[in-house]
Write a structure and sequence with these properties.
3-stranded antiparallel sheet; 72 residues; alpha+beta; 2 helices; single chain; 3 strands
Amino acid sequence: KWRAYLNALCASAELVFVETAHPDEVLPKAVAHGQSRAITKELEKRAERVIARTPGYDASCERPLWVIRASQ
C-alpha cells in the first residue's frame, strides 16, 4: 500500500519531498511501521538525496527528508 502512495506522490509533481521514519524508530500506531526498512531502501533508489534529518517521535532516531525528482 505504501508503494502505491509513493508512486502517486511521484506522479503528482516534478519535485517531491518525503520524510520517513528511521527504520529503528518505534512507532506502534503507524500503519506502515513494519515496512520502514523497505520504504527506506526504495527511497534510496529513487531519491536524489537527503536534504535534512530531524528528530523523530523517538528522539534518538533522526528522520531523513528525501528529495525525489520526476525523472527519477
